[in-house]
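> call design_seq(struct)
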């Protein structure tokens, strides 16, 4: 079982959006996937609750207290995708402890970049203690042809000693619409949105992080 967590203590960076579509991608490839909603806010659960019968989504379970995460070991899954809350250091620390792969989701803006510092620190602390966790930034809501996105993609801002995935998720209404409708972008006709997620998965597979 591989545990992949989507993190950033900054609210609204796109953790749930990325986690839900990433999990759905793997499910549609035939893997056994569970999406763990570690956020008491319950957006992933709301998403699943809004699911129309025809949509194919991973099962979402709530483990929204750090002490509950041990239940992950009992799940029958190839991949457990963890959607984490903002502003919850205890939960972040507990998730990093068990995760094999962490994607720190940032939007191309100073606010997101500054706010990720505590998460990155915790990842580094685990690695420095000899703990194994593969981690990278995932840029979400990138807007092609904007100076800010270009700067963030080039990585000049990145003084965190954490790599950045080459694949990025663009700012597309399809992502917001899918979350609202209780579907994934794979249930929509937006090929570009699907390709965004496909490329993130492919990059992790090439790196053998999945
Ligand atoms: N790539 C994207 N394109 C368009 N809209 C997006 C994208 N990513 C996220 N959004 C929108 O931004 C808002 C916040 O996204 P999301 O809920 O995924 O963030 P979050 O990090 O999980 O937030 P929280 O910290 O509150 O859990 C939502 O309205 C979502 O639809
Ligand atoms: Mg969320």
């Amino acid at each position: 079982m591989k545990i992949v967590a989507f993190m950033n203590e900054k609210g609204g960076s796109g953790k749930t959006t990325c986690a839900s579509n990433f999990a759905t991608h793997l499910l549609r490839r035939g893997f056994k996937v569970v999406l763990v909603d570690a956020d008491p806010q319950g957006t992933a659960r709301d998403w699943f609750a809004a699911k129309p019968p025809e949509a194919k989504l991973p099962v979402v379970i709530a483990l929204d207290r750090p002490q509950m995460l041990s239940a992950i070991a009992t799940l029958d899954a190839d991949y457990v995708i963890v959607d984490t809350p903002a502003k919850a250091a205890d939960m972040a620390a507990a998730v990093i402890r068990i995760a094999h792969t962490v994607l720190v989701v940032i939007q191309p803006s100073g606010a997101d970049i500054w706010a990720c510092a505590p998460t990155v620190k915790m990842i580094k602390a685990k690695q420095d203690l000899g703990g194994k966790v593969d981690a990278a930034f995932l840029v979400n809501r990138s807007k092609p042809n904007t100076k800010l996105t270009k700067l963030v993609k080039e990585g000049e801002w990145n003084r965190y000693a954490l790599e950045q995935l080459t694949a990025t998720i663009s700012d597309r209404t399809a992502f917001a619409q899918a979350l609202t409708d209780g579907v994934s972008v794979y249930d929509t006709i937006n090929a570009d949105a699907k390709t965004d997620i496909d490329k993130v998965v492919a990059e992790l597979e090439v790196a053998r992080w999945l």
